[in-house]
Amino acid sequence: MKTNLFSFRTLAIGLGAGALAFGVAPGTRDVLTAPAAAQSTSQIDQVIGALRGISTMKADFTQTDRQGSTVRGQMTLKRPGKIRFDYGKNADFLVISNGKSLYMVDYEVSQVERWPIGNSPLGALFDPGKDVKRYGKMVPTRDPNVLSVEVRDPKKPEFGMITLIFTRNASAPGGWQLTHWVALDAQNNRTRVQLSNQRYGVSVPDSTFTFKDPRRSTRRPG
Fold it and tell me: What are the residue ranges in the chain where pLDDT is below 50?
């Protein structure tokens, strides 16, 4: 589990707000090999519209690190700024944001790491108007039904890169469904997160984004 924990630490802190751009991961290379082109404002706006259109969302995810190790769980998103990556009741770690801070909770060693949301790679999901609009660059694809956007801050290469991939889907907010992303940190550690079974507009209580602090209790939250 520690290899997978490290790979999510890569995802959680390897990138910064406004420094979000994904590298090409296995399974996306055939889509992302077209030569670079001028920024498409209309496509950027479509990406922002798709992200802003998500009030709440639940999805299953499969997370794969650079060594090919895979873990699965459920992602829950609620605006503004709340997200939870739950690896199941038997997992020894949890990644969660309460709208103000992003936490990585390690129950095995009773540690909690905390970062402001602005220093997380998930800023594009939390505030797409700021991060995607300012730092995003469309990557041309060979498929008109696929959008790929890289987000990164060229002045802060230590924050790494993130790439969001969308496919056209009339039932998704803005007509585009976020299918996966790939994070690459400054040490070239790559993490791919594939989403499936996306559900929008579901009821999500704020209590979803709380956790029991293992520094006070060794019990895993239910």
Answer: 1-8, 10-39, 218-219, 221-222
pTM for this entry: 0.76
Task: Please check whether residue 220 lies inside any domain of the structure.
Answer: no
pLDDT in tens, 64-88: 888 888 889 999 999 888 889 898 8
- Structural domain that includes position 72: 2-202
Number of domains within the chain: 1
Residue 157 CB burial class (10 angstroms; 0-12, 13-18, ≥19): exposed
Q: Is residue 174 part of a domain?
A: yes
Report the residue count for the chain: 222
Strand-pair partners of 195: 61
CATH number at residue 47: 2.50.20.10
